[in-house]
Amino acid sequence: HSFPTRRSSALIEGRTNQIRIMFKYFGVMVEKLRRTQIGFLKLGNLGPTEWRPLTIAEVTQFQKMLKLSSK
Question: Are strands 41-42 and 37-38 parallel, antiparallel or unpaired?
């Protein structure tokens, strides 16, 4: 009888179900996944369907990434 184990994985760029497929290869079934970050943007304790306004620093970071002016 096996008990659930919590594992942590980081994927820089992935495709749909890539984590599940990688763990399945090693015989490990993934029951639940939680996204904690998208690029530089940390999601904190946001739940599914929840949102929050971006901070000024985050907007500035996006503008730099997209090479947009802050006018």
Answer: antiparallel
